[in-house]
Amino acid sequence: MQIYLDYSATTPPRSEVIAAMATCMADSWGNPSSLHHWGGRAATALEQARLQVASLLNAPASAVVFTAGGTEADNLALMGVAQRYRVPQHMIISAVEHSAVEQPAQRLEALGWQVTRLPVDSQGRVNPVALRQALRDNTVLVSIIYGQSEVGTLQPIAALGQMARDHGALFHTDAVQVAGRLPLDVQTLPVDLLSLSSHKIYGPQGAGALYVRPGTKLLPLLRGGGQELGLRSGTQAVPTLAGFGVAAALAAEEMAAETVRLSGLRDRLFDQLSTVAELMPTGDRHRRLPHHVSFCVAADGDRVSGRTLVREMNLAGIGISAGSACHSGKLSPSPVLLAMGYSDRAARCGIRLTLGRHTTAADIDWVAMVLRQVLHRALAPLALTPV
Question: Whose CA, among 13, 84, 354, 362, lies 20 to 30 Å from 229?
Fold first, then answer.
């Protein structure tokens, strides 16, 4: 039995997406900037995709800038704002941002920018009071992740965004994990910039988007032909974006029912593992992504790390992910778990199980049983070898 529970890492492209991409490659392969018939067909396919992605956000199509993924969208948001200023200013992010926000922030610090990282509580949530206290006269941008990919916690984005808006600062949110799983309405949500990724919603890898509220000024990262309203030069990957558009349309159509289904499966898995003393749930248990389950292993970190469990579960035919990264062969503690107050050892022992449209109740029951067995074997007393 093969069970994939790593949907926060990537999702398998839907058959409708694959078909749309194949059709586009066969029929709309022209350069969408060309004025002839072939270019016109490509331009039509491109703008159809833009409209579909915009509809997922209740945004005007003209506010969607296509990128090569969520990472580029995050970089464009932060660096695009920062490049407007000749003199370094002040920016606020959270302590649990994705590296696609954290690393651009570090780069800006090296260029003289002041960056405040808001602390989070033990559940990974930002207190809006902390944002109010951190705002300064020269704060020009606040960037807070909407749904944390490692621990699943949802941030109070509406309150945080309104606070930034009232102060006169732009507000960006990385909504890569939220899109297609929870409603996103930029007509009511106080955000100026919002990042999306195609391969998190059953679209192809290599496509993303940045919503840019009309009137928001950015400078581009890439310069050239001036595509994407001058914010992202380069000939667009029309077939890939066509797939992104179909994935967005299907997500919008199915989201209400799928969110309820996934939330039920998520709670079922949490409940089935609630009696396993060695597993400590991480993140906010209720204010979390509907498809997301995560734990820290409360055991000997030298024997049972997150990576150990990923390997053992993979041998059992189950795909999950570890909550910490491996750099140059060294297991590093998760910065997210450290920010939430976990010890250095515990922060090496995070695991994440994320559910998707192919996940069933039977899958949940099987995974819970297998994970119990894997933990039992891993934590069993070491046998003594007879002399």
Answer: 13
Quote the tokens at residue 267. Answer: 């709670």
d(CA 174, CA 197): 10
In eight-state DSSP terms, residue 149 is T
Strand 170-174, strand 193-197: pairing: parallel
Q: How many whole angstroms separate alpha carbon 211 and alpha carbon 193?
A: 5
User: CB–CB of 90/139 below 8 Å?
Assistant: yes
Per-residue pLDDT of the chain (387 residues; tens, 9 = 90+): 899 999 999 999 999 999 999 999 999 999 999 999 999 999 999 999 999 999 999 999 999 999 999 999 999 999 999 999 999 999 999 999 999 999 999 999 999 999 999 999 999 999 999 999 999 999 999 999 999 999 999 999 999 999 999 999 999 999 999 999 999 999 999 999 999 999 999 999 999 999 999 999 999 999 999 999 999 999 999 999 999 999 999 999 999 999 999 999 999 999 999 999 889 999 999 999 999 999 999 865 456 788 889 999 999 999 999 975 544 345 689 999 999 999 998 999 999 999 999 999 999 999 999 999 999 888 776 444 444
Catalytic residues, by residue number, are: 326
Domain boundaries, the chain: 3-9+255-375, 15-251
Give me the sheet containing 279-281, strands edge to edge. 279-281, 292-297, 350-354, 321-322
Which two tokens mark 29? 């392969």
C-alpha to C-alpha distance for 308 and 299, rounded to whole angstroms: 12
CATH number (2.60.40.1940, 3.40.50.300, 3.40.640.10, 3.30.310.180) of 15-251 reads 3.40.640.10
